[in-house]
Structures
1.
Amino acid sequence: MGLREDVNVWIGTGAAAVVSIVLLSLWARASIRSSLERPALQSVVVGVAVGVAMSFAIWWLYPLSIAILPPIEGQVETLYALLRQPPGPIRAFPLLLLVVAAEELVWRGLAIDVFSKMLGPWQAVLVSALLYVLPQIAFRSPLLMIIALLCGLVWGALRVRFKGLAAPLSAHIIWDVLVFIMYPVA
């Protein structure tokens, strides 16, 4: 996000995702393997339902938020303009899946595993969500930071509750597809 004026958002996030996955495969192979064990169908179904519910929450809260704080509308339009950069969100869908997978492996996989050993699982969810917000600071959008924190908390809770990445990965993909591709708020 910090390089968004200089580097296409899809190239930047895609490169970050590839680097993250490579580094994780080198240093955290066991953690990744345990997080990706064959998921129960219930985890995927719950993840999809949570992703849909989160999307409805965004669609409902967005008009309220711009009524309260009108500058939010410009910030959201700027974010969507970045996502419309070539190749655009529809053509970049495979890259979007890679980015979501990398984020889930890093923030809900490795981070929660590491911090759970020190703090316990629910405190690890909070720390992981706070760390998930850090890259969003470069965008300089308080709204994006709040949304990242809330999403990080929900997806982290799914990770702890269902003891794997299937539920948060499903929720994250559904939310991204609905909010960024199919039915954008701006």
Note: The chain is about 80% helix and 0% strand.
2.
Amino acid sequence: MYLSKLTFNNHLVGARRLIASPYQLHKAIMRAFPDADDGGPGRVLFRVDHSGNSDEAYLLVQSEKKPDWQRAELLLNCLALPPKSKPLDLKFNKGQVLYFRLQANPTVKRKMADNKVSKRLGLLREEDQFLWLKRKAERGGFSILSCVTTAKEMLEETKAGNGTKHKLSMLSVHFEGVLKVEDNKAFLETVRSGIGSAKGLGFGLLSLAPIRG
């Protein structure tokens, strides 16, 4: 596993456009990884973060395979600094306590009026969002000790394919808090695979940090 950090140059129109379009950003990121003929990219998760109260935006990318950012020319042209990548040595112990950050798309599947087609709907109430995360934690080998939501918004995106365009509306919720590892093997798989839906559009990356002091 690898973790990369790429700092955007927000003065560039191209950078602002990429940040505003998860679909185009996904396409730009994937240029750094092998295509299907060369074995495929493996699991790639990403998230756009902002530095405190500043306007600086940066991109975190967690990948199964080592990226070659020189291949992602469109993305490189939008950066203020050279990309930084490092190997991730993911090892966890049962009972370990960690800070976490997660941008997620908390949803639930509901059958429509015809009772035949299911649709994924965003969970708008904060109570439902926390219950959603709790369920994901129980299945993912960890428990939530404390958690707050730091930002919520609806993201609108237009995705093109097969000669048509589809409008997407996605609920984005930022969770931050403290978790406890309950099952180290299950938790490792959760970190590798991400949490929730719309992972290809910048959701699901679980960032972790040790608790100091």
Note: The helical segments are 13-20, 22-30, 73-76, 126-139, 184-193.
